[in-house]
Amino acid sequence: QVQLVESGGGKVQPGGSLTLSCAASGSIFSANVMGWYRQAPGHERELVATMTSRGRANYADSVKDRFTISRDNTKNMVYLQMNSLKLEDTAVYYCHYKTLVVAVEQTEYQSWGQGTQVTVSS
Q: What residues contact residue 86 under an 8 Å CB cut-off, 6+ apart?
């Protein structure tokens, strides 16, 4: 079982910056992908950015070149540096964890954080 706790959300003006943090605890498998999803009112939850435990990153086109995901595997932390924030970035941001199956006896597992609100407004 993996628990995820997000922090760092808040209210910022358009063009501002914000950094989100996700602390993972529990039985963290070495081969995994962690990242961020977001959900705005009336919208489906969408991928923002993910990074594998080896450092391969994936970004949504809408945040590419503005957001940067990073990981500290020693501390079991994932970060999302958000720059040049836009009104449409307003959403609840969720940390996500999923194992990568590398053994027959391993069952794929995923976990979600409780979410942190990011509001971009003037």
A: 14, 120
Is 114 exposed, middle or buried, given 0-12, 13-18 or 19+ CB atoms closer than 10 A? Answer: exposed
Q: How far apart are CA 118 and CA 89, in angstroms?
A: 8
Q: Specify the pLDDT at position 56.
A: 97
Sign of the Cα torsion 26, 32, 36, 40 reads: negative
Task: Please tell me the distance from the alpha carbon of residue 25 to that of residue 32, in angstroms, as a whole number.
Answer: 13
Instruction: Count the alpha carbons within 13 Å of 23 in the hemisphere toward its beta carbon.
Output: 5
Does the pLDDT at position 1 exceed 90? yes
Task: Assess contact for 53 and 121: CB atoms under 8 A.
Answer: no
- Confidence band of 107 (pLDDT split at 50, 70, 90): confident
User: Cα 94–84–113 angle (5° rounding)?
Assistant: 5
Q: Which carries the bigger pLDDT value, residue 106 or residue 39?
A: 39
Residue 114 region by backbone torsions, left for phi larger than 0, else alpha for psi between -120 and 50, else beta: alpha
